[in-house]
Design brief:
Blueprint: H1 2-19, E1 30-36, H2 41-54, E2 67-72, H3 83-92, H4 127-135, E3 138-146, H5 150-156, H6 165-173, E4 179-183, H7 190-198, E5 201-205, H8 210-213, E6 218-223, H9 242-253, E7 261-267, H10 269-275, H11 279-303, E8 306-311, E9 315-316, E10 320-321, H12 334-338, H13 348-357, H14 363-371, H15 377-391, H16 394-406, H17 420-430, E11 434-435, E12 441-442, E13 446-451, E14 461-464, H18 465-475, H19 482-489, E15 491-492, H20 493-496, E16 501-505, E17 513-518, E18 521-526, E19 531-534, E20 537-540, E21 546-548, E22 553-556, H21 560-565
Parallel strand pairs: 1-7, 1-8, 2-14, 3-4, 3-7, 4-6, 5-6
Antiparallel strand pairs: 2-13, 8-13, 9-12, 10-11, 15-22, 16-17, 17-18, 18-19, 19-20, 21-22
Helix pairs in contact: 2-11, 3-5, 3-18, 9-11, 10-11, 13-17, 15-16, 15-17
Length: about 575
């Protein structure tokens, strides 16, 4: 049985190679890689219809002329992708396990790719790290989620758990990134801010003007405590648009830069809207991503030596335009099919926040003003109770849950386990003939669009996520693979310092300190930083070292042995 599964997996992974011959790739100066997280093809169709409902003439997206194929994404052991391992594959070429960021997988009984068990949990060098180390390119990330979230972390950090922000954030801070713009102003510590400022960065927290006024060569500009609000919920002059953040990043990365740059952009919250099954937020978040695509395309066309690659990391939600209770599907007008899609002025999260901030008596008025329709009597009761549940102290919550359990609203199941925003999204859905099969990820192919200086350089056809990585690597002109570089830059300390006196101190992984002694020389370094001390004198490494508790190893450059052997 296991042999049969291996044969099937081999055939499965060979499909993209059978469909499309390898395309020649000429290196370029700049690469802009843009990911619309959790975006199924049906979500793109919904965004097009959203535009068309606003004006009949709006039928195309900015990326449409550059659509060139699809991408098959997967984990090392599962066809349905998770953002952490799937974007890791784009960055380092090796599919990994659910939740793993920039980290080699462990072997399972159902692997889809060959896995070397000896490499389990080892950090893998990313394209962003490689191009900075080997080519001195500038590098940056722009996101709408918090900065240590899975996709940006995949390019800039390494952890077998995407949830361990206490491991990921210090790595990003110490990884010599030229530009970081996105959410998470409440996640970076004062000590980390001071470190960055001391290293010459402009660091801005909730400073909208910084996107245009920064004069530093490198910058971190962070907004909101965690994620930036949905595009349709943002406050002008306070919450930046993705297109504005991309404009700022490109301006800075292109300034006095003979070696070029690699920029990763993520439209992060298309995925979040899809998890919520909120069709309004799904459409508007993708349109916000598409406006950022136009900024990137305009830059690439003017520059003449830039490639732009656009894709998603996986599908999400199983959205269908049309559903089982739509009887005359081929005779239904777009107005009836999509209902009040373009009339709703806030995402389900945005409306929930408005309701919680107002008096309960104002709820019906606010709801109708935002949506253009009134909730039913049953929905209104549920909205009020869910509002109370989210605002109530812990001692009162159980009584409210009991009231919610007594409600029976068709299709909504256990309301007491839902949030106010979740229920609002369900009301949105009930007014449109849109179907959803899941609140989770899905395994269908995702879109691929590409722009290059010449038509021959564009990526076309059906590709795996591994093949897309190779296209990016070759476009950057990187010869060695990321696994080859990993042998040099992320070797286990037990190999690098074999035969020497080594001690590891500290209770938690983030507090671990490696100390190595040879003769009169003592080397020490703290986990997840690039701060190395040799006989008490500070040196900055080109990469942060990574401690992994699963293996009780520090992973670091092989060149460090020479510091002690001199």
């Amino acid at each position: 049985m296991k042999r049969t599964l291996c044969i099937l997996a081999t055939l499965f992974l060979a499909l993209p190679q059978l469909m499309v011959a390898e395309q020649p790739t000429k290196p370029v100066k700049n690469v802009i890689f843009m990911i619309s997280d959790g975006t199924s093809l049906s979500t793109i169709s919904l965004a097009r219809w959203y535009q068309n409902l606003q004006a009949d003439s709006l039928t195309r997206l900015h990326l449409d002329p550059y659509m060139s194929g699809t991408v098959l994404t997967f984990c090392s052991d599962a066809p349905i992708g998770d953002s952490a391992p799937t974007t890791s594959t784009y960055m380092n070429g090796m599919p990994s396990i659910q939740g793993m960021v920039g980290t080699y997988p462990y072997a399972t009984s159902h692997d889809l790719v060959p896995v070397d068990s000896a490499m389990a949990y080892r950090p893998i060098v990313s394209l962003m790290e490689a191009t900075r180390l080997l080519q001195n390119r500038k590098v940056g990330v722009v996101i709408t989620c918090e900065f240590p979230h899975a996709t940006p972390a995949d390019a800039t950090a390494h952890s077998y758990s995407r949830k361990r922000y206490d491991w990921i954030i210090p790595q990003m801070v110490h990884n010599h990134l030229d530009v970081v713009i996105g959410g998470g102003a409440g996640l970076i510590s004062e000590e980390q801010v001071n470190y960055l400022k001391g290293d010459g960065y402009g660091v801005y927290l909730n400073d909208y003007a910084s996107l245009k006024t920064n004069q530093k060569e490198r910058m971190w500009s962070l907004f909101s405590h965690r994620d930036i609000p949905y595009d349709m919920d943002g406050v002008a002059g306070k919450d930046p648009k993705l297109s504005e953040m991309v404009t700022s990043a490109l301006t800075l990365l292109n300034r006095d830069n003979p070696n070029g740059f690699f920029l990763l952009v993520e439209g992060s919250k298309v995925d979040w809207a899809a998890h919520a099954n909120d069709p309004v937020a799904m459409a508007t978040e993708f349109l916000a991503f598409d406006r950022a695509v136009q900024v990137a395309l305009d830059f690439a066309k003017a520059d003449g030596n830039t490639i732009v690659v656009l894709t998603a990391d996986h599908g999400n939600s199983g959205l269908s335009i049309g559903r089982g209770d739509l009887r005359n599907y081929a005779g239904t007008s777009k107005e009836k099919l999509f209902g009040p899609l373009i009339k709703i002025q806030k995402s389900s999260v945005g409306l929930a926040n408005m309701i919680k901030a107002a008096e309960e008596s104002e709820l019906p008025r606010i709801f109708e003003e935002v949506t253009t329709f009134a909730p039913t009597e049953e929905e209104l009761v549920a909205l009020k109770l869910l509002r109370q549940l989210e605002l109530a102290p812990d001692a009162e919550r159980e009584a409210i849950k009991q009231q919610l359990k007594a409600l029976s609203i068709s299709g909504e199941g256990a309301l007491y386990t839902a949030g106010l925003a979740d229920f609002i999204a369900s009301i949105y859905r009930n007014h449109m003939y849109l179907g959803f099969t899941t609140h989770g990820h899905t395994a269908e192919d995702v879109f691929l669009a590409s722009y290059a200086p010449t038509e021959e350089q564009r990526l076309r056809g059906v590709h795996s996520n591994m093949e897309l990585h190779n296209y990016l690597r070759k476009s950057l002109g990187l010869g060695p693979t990321m696994l080859e570089l990993t042998d040099k830059y992320f070797a286990p300390h037990s190999e690098v310092f074999s035969g020497l006196k080594v001690t590891i101190t500290g209770e938690e992984p983030k507090d671990k300190v490696l100390t190595v002694k040879k003769g009169r020389k003592t080397l020490s370094i703290k986990s997840y930083t690039n701060q190395l001390y040799l006989n008490g004198k500070l040196q900055q490494l080109s990469l942060p070292v990574v401690y992994v508790d699963k293996t009780d190893q520090f992973y670091l450059p092989t060149s460090l042995r020479a510091l002690l052997d001199k």
